[in-house]
Design brief:
Elements lengths: L40 H16 L7 H15 L12 H11 L18
Length: 119
């Protein structure tokens, strides 16, 4: 527990408010679609930033759920915004939106067939 008392570095900045070079995003993220089930733009932007960072670092697959958990940690612990809740229902739509927005990452997340889309 001793390590938990130390100030953790901010995943989305260098502590001085600067975004590390490896995490710089394009200035205009892809617009959100209605398929994101009410997910706020800020959450989608953070999701996109983390997924792109992982992809650029050589990961060929990753968990969209793990990325959303990291965003929860950032919002609740690092930013101290305990009132904001990340909805678990955003995970699959975010993964689909990300891969549609970034064709070079088309198989980055494992997708399951949506029950609502089955015949």
């Amino acid at each position: 527990m001793g390590r938990m008392k130390e100030k953790m570095p901010d995943l989305f900045g260098d502590g001085a408010g600067q975004i590390p070079k490896r995490m710089v995003m394009p200035p205009d993220p892809k617009p959100l679609t209605t398929d994101l089930e009410g997910c706020p733009q800020e959450i989608a932007n953070l999701f996109e930033r983390l997924a792109l960072q992982l992809h650029r670092e050589g990961r060929s697959h990753f968990s969209s759920d793990a990325i959303l958990h990291r965003i929860r940690w950032y919002l609740n612990v690092e930013r101290g915004d305990g009132d904001f809740k990340c909805n678990d229902h955003w995970t699959a739509p975010l993964a689909r939106w990300f891969m549609a927005s970034h064709p070079e990452c088309k198989n980055f997340f494992e997708l399951r067939v949506r029950k609502s889309k089955q015949t």
